[in-house]
Write a structure and sequence with these properties.
Blueprint lengths: L2 H31 L12 H28 L16 E5 L5 E7 L5 E5 L2 E7 L3 H6 L7 E6 L2 E10 L1
Parallel strand pairs: 2-4
Antiparallel strand pairs: 1-2, 1-6, 3-4, 5-6
Keywords: Elongation factor, Protein biosynthesis
Pfam families: GreA_GreB
InterPro entries: GreA/GreB_C_sf, Tscrpt_elong_fac_GreA/B_C, Tscrpt_elong_fac_GreA/B_fam
Amino acid sequence: MDKFLLQQRVLEKLAEDLLQVEQAARAAHETATHEENIAENKYDTLGLEAAYLATGQARRAEAIRQAMINWRQFRPRPYDASKGIQLGALVCLVDADDSQQQLFLGPDGGSMKLLSGTQFVQVISSEAPLGRVLLGKCEGDEVSIQVAAVRQQFDVLRVQ
């Protein structure tokens, strides 16, 4: 699997998300400022609610823009066994049921699932619980995380 291709796919998905959020922010802003939505009494809050929504959408758009900057500056490096798993690693985990999952450890803001060929790749950051646990681990190591009341255990099968 090509890490640079995955990086491009993350950037494309972030660009799509940004477009949708910007459109939603514009629509909410138009609703908030439309003359028909001027409050006639203290219970008439449609304009106010739309303004809050527009503000939230604008913040989300800014977060996506920052994630895009982080992902554009990101340079995935080849796996170095002496350092273990680092940002940019493509990791294959296997659980007790022999179920495998592919993870791509990247910068913040790119949490998503991508289809690469016939396999799904989960993009996570080093700030995610599983991402934190993986840092510094090597092929053959065992990792575990607590999710709600369930402890999940995985073996690191492969790292690129």
